[in-house]
Amino acid sequence: MSRTALEGVRVLDMTHVQSGPSATQLLAWLGADVVKVEAPGGDITRRQLRDVPDADSLYFTMLNCNKRSITLNTKTERGQEILAALVRGADVMVENFAPGAVERMGFTWERIREINPRIVYASIKGFGDGPYTAFKAYEVVAQAMGGSMATTGFEDGPPLATGAQIGDSGTGIHAVAAILAALLQRERTGRGQRVNVAMQHAVLNLCRVKLRDQQRLAHGPLAEYPNDTFGEEVPRSGNASGGGQPGWAVRCAPGGPNDYVYVIVQPVGWQPLSALIGRPELAADPEWATPEARLPKLAKMFQLIEEWTSTLPKWQVLQQLNSHNIPCGPILSPKEIIEDASLAANDMIVEVGHPERGTFTTVGNPLKLSDSPTTITTPPLLGQHNEEIYIGELGLGDEELRLLRSGGVI
């Protein structure tokens, strides 16, 4: 029988909302035993954006599959004693509270390391040390301060946020990489260590091509951008590919909001593409035949392509382009993605049962390991595993558990 990659690894999940839970859910999908420690009132996202009354929201369920849940009031003396016992038995502890919150509970890194020298203690914050440290961080704030918004949108429009949650879930993925590296290093040294990941830093890492272009701009205009003029800063460039090969989203029939196909024009693809759009003569025309000749006319080139694509449905455009090995992809809406049979077949769109809300659809594990297949299990109800962990694993008695509950400790 296959063993999971992180079998035997205990993760103490003291995270909430998205950046932290996205990280710990990935660890759970990789096989770690993730114990979510919630205040008696629960993670705030259990109640946010509810679509089913009195049931955990999709916001919560889609970020907390494959975990166990206990409740604990860490502001009480007994709660802190229990937390210390949990730390003692953990391999990894993850938190994304505001700066200083865990320290105010009495759990500095020095104390945590004293309790458990082998623990990997990971913190997700909005920003690193410096003038922004105390700023409140949200998804779009991280996008704004990490370089994404300034370079997203069209030249004549305002900066735009991306629909991808690069500030929250993007940071969670970075945190997972750091945690796994620290666990691997522990195998050699026997020691745990502190891991810090900032949302601003993670977004910046995802925006490196724009920093590349900022430096290139010092040597002249960026020819592969569709912009007519350039100042001292990298401009917003609409749907330009941002890479060495020009690309654009071109409209298809019947002209709905997502009736588009993204097309990339490689040098080798120009001859078949010019034939497809009914302009075969452009393949040999010196004004169009080479990438260098086409660069100054990118807007006109994609206009010519769109004159063809706008007469056909996007799936037909996709079929014809792919038949000539031209890189392309349809713009898929969330509805189309949920209904995509291939994503379901790849376990990327998954149906999960839930005791309160019934079946819901969620995203599957994008990390595919041949010896460690992932089964997505239902997220825990609030405090669902209190008895299992407090009595069965920490050795507390039934009476003490009753007193902890009545005393507001759990």
From TrEMBL:
Keywords: Transferase
Catalytic activity, EC: 2.8.3.16
Active site feature: D168
One Pfam family named in its UniProt record: CoA_transf_3
Keyword Plastid: no
List of residues binding CoA: Q18, S19, L72, N73, T74, K75, N96, F97, A98, R104, K136, A137, Y138, E139
Reaction equations catalysed: formyl-CoA + oxalate = oxalyl-CoA + formate
Residues given in the record as substrate binding sites: G243, G244, Q245
Segments for region (Disordered): 222-246
Enzyme type, top EC level: transferase
UniProt-listed InterPro entries: CoA-transferase_III_domain, CoA-Trfase_fam_III, CoA-Trfase_III_dom3_sf, CoA-Trfase_III_dom_1_sf, Formyl_CoA_transfer
Source superkingdom: Bacteria
GO molecular function: formyl-CoA transferase activity
Metabolic or biological pathway: Metabolic intermediate degradation; oxalate degradation; CO(2) and formate from oxalate: step 1/2
Assembly, per entry: Homodimer.
Protein function: Involved in the catabolism of oxalate and in the adapatation to low pH via the induction of the oxalate-dependent acid tolerance response (ATR). Catalyzes the transfer of the CoA moiety from formyl-CoA to oxalate.
Stated family: Belongs to the CoA-transferase III family. Frc subfamily.
HAMAP family: Formyl_CoA_transfer
Name used for this protein in its record: Formyl-CoA:oxalate CoA-transferase
Upper lineage: Bacteria, Bacillati, Actinomycetota, Actinomycetes, Kitasatosporales
Annotated gene: frc
